[in-house]
Amino acid sequence: MTHAEDGSRSHKNEQERCQSKADRQSLYRNSLLRREALGRRNCMTRVLLLHGGQVPHYRVPIYNHLSCYLSERSFALTVTSEGIQPGNPTAVEFDYTQMHLSASSIARLVWRGKVDVVIMFVDMRHRYLFPVYLAAKGILRRKMIWWGQGRDLAHPDAMLKNAAYGTEHALCDAIILYAEHLKKYVAPRFHQKTFVANNTLALTYGGLAAGSKNEVLDSYKIHTRKNIICIGRFQRRKRIGQLVAAIQLMNRPDIGLILVGPDTENVLDRIDGPNIYKLGPIYGDKRFDLLSAADVYCLPGAVGLSIVDAFHCGLPFVTEEGDESAEIGYLKHGQNGFAVPRGDVSELANRLLQLLDDENLRSRFSQAARREVKENASIENLCEGFVLALQHATRP
Questions:
Q1: Does residue 16 sit within a domain?
Q2: How far apart are CA 61 and CA 54, in angstroms?
Q3: Residue 17: what pLDDT?
Q4: Fewest CB within 10 A of the end CB: N or C in the chain?
Q5: For residue 46, what is the enclosing H or E element?
Q6: Where are the alpha helices (DSSP H) in 268-378?
Q7: The whole model's pTM is what?
Q8: Does 98 lie in the same domain as 175?
Q9: What is the phi/psi pair of residue 279, to 5°?
Q10: Residues 6+ positions from 131 with CB-CB distance below 8 Å
């Protein structure tokens, strides 16, 4: 072996020793970090959010944000469900356990995970609902929080179901409601343990680039420059027919109707026209670009979280009266939108035309819509409602 070869081998061995030492140091540091994180978690109040069924796409960023927010306030959140909706585009950053949900599997998770508080986000249709109360509250003596709308808003007068909701409210140590106006569905004797976490979304969309509105519209072959938009799953309860009738009543060639989303009940099959654009499902920032390129949002029935999307993009919102929801509380009639009498197509058309043709009015409504989201529909407001409920449930 030459002197050069021997030197090269020695140099290589030295590099390997250094690399091995660096690897050991890295493993040691990582081990310390894991133990430190585990130690911090052990000092925290452990919270299990029981999400019945699958976690939908839009809830993933909410739980990501909620997990971080609670962690900074000494609550360690774990979410468990049957799974996450397929095709989820958002990284899961919260502690998540997927499993078949039953009273026994949930009880084991609560026991082995040393859970302190269980948040119930479970529909009545799940048979394990009340057995979980028996196991977690009655046997394991854990604190429990109920999260929801107070009752089934689609059937608010269902006596048997309302009795079941009342039983849940009585069993829980705290109640989290989707909105302030839903307190009427909670017995007054429980109001002292009731907290509000306004139902909303974790939105990060920064807005449409200046001067690109027409470019967005052109990319979808939308030739009208005054446009009403509606985005979501098209179902009969949303009464899209009312909106189409209003468009036909206007009879304005400069006004278009943009419909975006899956047609789950084939309600769009008979809807057609020269200025009606059925674009199908569109997701991500492209959906928000399209919202920002439109002028007014209209959904005659079943208002949900779409109003948060619309207001985030500065769109005035027009709907019909008669459907109660948590999110309808964001609509301030005459300030950021209009609620017209149910079934009054003429008034629906008039209000839409008023916003489309009066640029100053639309601008004022747009500013008010953005302000509403910032003040009342922020993700921080939702998270703070959880913190207050958890603090109440776990106080000595």
A1: yes
A2: 15
A3: 56
A4: C
A5: strand 45-51
A6: 285-293, 306-312, 345-357, 359-376
A7: 0.87
A8: yes
A9: -100, -10
A10: 103
